[in-house]
């Protein structure tokens, strides 16, 4: 198990290059998949339930890596609702307008959404589910290595 935040960047890259399977909770650590050997590994991503992000799946596809994901229960102390509107706001914007003495004021109404604070949330995954998805990633490597 490696905590990339404790390593210098050059070492992080080296570890990723030598890894066959990269397992992690959705976040910056999985960006290291871009340093894995082309076509020589698998990425296992654990996403907070309700969170759909395809960035690491896309990196895996570009790098010809296996990709496996599962969702885990959010156990944050506060409720989180993606897309929740916290407040409606009106903002007056001054713009240059050559037809109106060079200036024009426009009022715009918008919504202030709650920031998707997935990166500070704790998650919980059943042990069996964790081992199952991790084993799937490892077995995909074993099958690929044997040429099946």
TrEMBL record:
Phylogenetic lineage: Eukaryota, Fungi, Dikarya, Ascomycota, Pezizomycotina
One term of GO molecular function: glycosyltransferase activity
Name of the protein in question: Glycosyltransferase 61 catalytic domain-containing protein
Matching Pfam families: Glyco_transf_61
Ranges of residues in domain Glycosyltransferase 61 catalytic: 2-42
């Amino acid at each position: 198990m490696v905590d990339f935040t404790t390593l210098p960047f050059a070492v992080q890259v080296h570890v990723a290059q030598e890894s066959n399977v990269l397992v992690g909770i959705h976040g910056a650590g999985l960006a290291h998949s871009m340093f894995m050997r082309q076509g020589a590994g698998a990425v296992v991503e654990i996403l907070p339930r309700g969170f759909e992000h395809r960035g690491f799946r896309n990196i895996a596809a570009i790098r010809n890596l296996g990709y496996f994901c599962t969702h885990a229960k959010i156990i944050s102390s506060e409720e989180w609702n993606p897309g929740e509107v916290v407040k409606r706001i009106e903002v007056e914007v001054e713009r240059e307008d050559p037809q109106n003495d060079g200036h024009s004021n426009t009022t715009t109404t918008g919504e202030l959404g709650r920031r998707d604070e997935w990166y500070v949330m704790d998650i919980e995954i059943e042990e069996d589910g964790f081992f199952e998805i991790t084993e799937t990633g490892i077995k995909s490597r074993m099958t690929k290595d044997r040429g099946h």
